[in-house]
Amino acid sequence: MNTDRERPPVGFIGLGDQGLPMATAIAEADFPLHAWARRSTSLDGLRGVPHVRHDGIRDLAASCDIVGLCVSTDEDVLQLVTGGLLEALRPGAVVVNHGTGLPANAVRLTEICAPAGVEVLDAPVSGGRPAAEERRLTTLVGGPRTAVERCEPVFASFSRHVVHLGGAGAGQTAKLFNNALLMMNQANIAEIVDLATELGMNPARLVGVLKLGSASSAALTLLNTMVTLDNVEHLYRVEALDMELFDTAMRAADVDPGAVTERGMAGARGLSRLLHSLNPPDPAATAGDGKER
After folding, report:
1. CB-neighbour burial class of residue 232 (10 A; exposed 0-12, middle 13-18, buried 19+)
2. Quick one: which of 66, 132, 243, 286 is 20 to 30 A from 22 by CA?
3. Taking a C-beta distance cutoff of 8 angstroms, is the pair 91, 118 a contact?
4. Calpha distance 173→111 (Å, rounded)
C-alpha cells in the first residue's frame, strides 16, 4: 500500500461526459492518475495531463489505492469489479462508484469486496459536464467514514460540495431523490409554460425572467443551457431510467413512491415538448419558397 496518504495513486475508469473532466481534475490536483478504457482512444482525452495508461484493469488495480468508476450501470460496475479489479486490489484499497444506481447494489458491492479487505463507497455526482469541467460537482457519499476521509481530498478536486450521508447505499438514495425532484420540477415548469402560452405570452421570455426571480431552480437554469434540442431525446431516456431506479429502490424499502414516480415520469416525458416550446421554429427558415399553400 502506498505510504503517501496525502496523494495516493488513483485509478479511474469511465472517461465519458462527466468522467473525463473528473479524471482531469484529479490529475491536475497532483494525484498520481492511472487510467484504463475498453477503447484505447478514450484515453486520448487525457493528453496534456500527467497520467499512466494501463492495458488491463488488473495492472491498474495493482498500482492504485483508490479506484473511481464512472460507468453507466450497476451491471457495468459489478462486471469490472468481479472481472479483474478486486482480484488485483490490495487490502485497504477503496473502490468508488461515481455512477447512479440502486442502493441495494451498493450494499451488494460492499459485501463482495469485504472478504478481500477492500472498502467501497457509493459516491454519485450531481451537476453534469459543465459542473465537472468547472470543479463544482456535488458528490453524495455512502459508506464507511474512514474510507470517506481517505477519499475526500480526491473528491474535492472536482467537487464544490462533498457530503457523507451514511452507510452503504446512502449516497445512491440521495442521488435518486435529487433526480426525482429535478424531474418533478420539470413537470411544474411545463405546466406553467403551457398556461403562459394559452395567455399569448412568449414562453422563452417568461422562462428567462423566472430564472432571475424567486421561482428559479436548477430545472429552470438547465433549460437551453445543459438541456438543449440537440441532447433532449438522450436526456429523456436517461431521466426515464433514473425514475425507474427510484421507483425500484423505494419499493425495495417498502415505501410507496407512486405519486412521486408518476410526477417525475411526467417531467421526463414532457422534457422534449418543453424544449421545443421554448425554441419555436424560425418563421423565416420555414417559409420555404414563399408560395401560398
Report:
1. middle
2. 243
3. yes
4. 18
Is residue 70 a contact partner of residue 13, using CB atoms and an 8 Å limit?
yes
Q: Nearest 5°: phi and psi at 140? A: -105, 115
Residues 6+ apart with CB under 8 A from 70: 12, 13, 14, 15, 16, 18, 19, 22, 98, 99
3-state class (DSSP) for residue 284: helix
Amino acid at 28: E
pTM (whole model) above 0.85: yes
Are 140 and 116 in contact by the 8 Å Cβ rule? The answer is no
247 CB-near residues (< 8 Å, 6+ apart): 257, 261
User: What is the residue-wise DSSP string for 150-190?
Assistant: HHHHHHHTTEEEEEEEESTTHHHHHHHHHHHHHHHHHHHHH
Q: What is 35-62 written as a DSSP string?
A: EE-SSGGGGGGGTTS--EE-SSHHHHHH
Look at the block and give the residue holding cell 489505492: 65
At residue 49, φ and ψ (nearest 5 deg) are -120, 145
Q: Tens of pLDDT along the chain (293 residues)?
A: 444 557 999 999 999 999 999 999 999 999 999 999 999 899 999 999 999 999 999 999 999 999 999 999 999 999 999 999 999 999 999 999 999 999 999 999 999 999 999 999 999 999 999 999 999 999 999 999 999 999 999 999 999 999 999 999 999 999 999 999 999 999 999 999 999 999 999 999 999 999 999 999 999 999 999 999 999 999 999 999 999 999 999 999 999 999 999 999 999 999 999 999 999 987 665 555 555 44
Q: How far apart are CA 237 and CA 242, in angstroms?
A: 9
Residue 82 carries which DSSP code? I
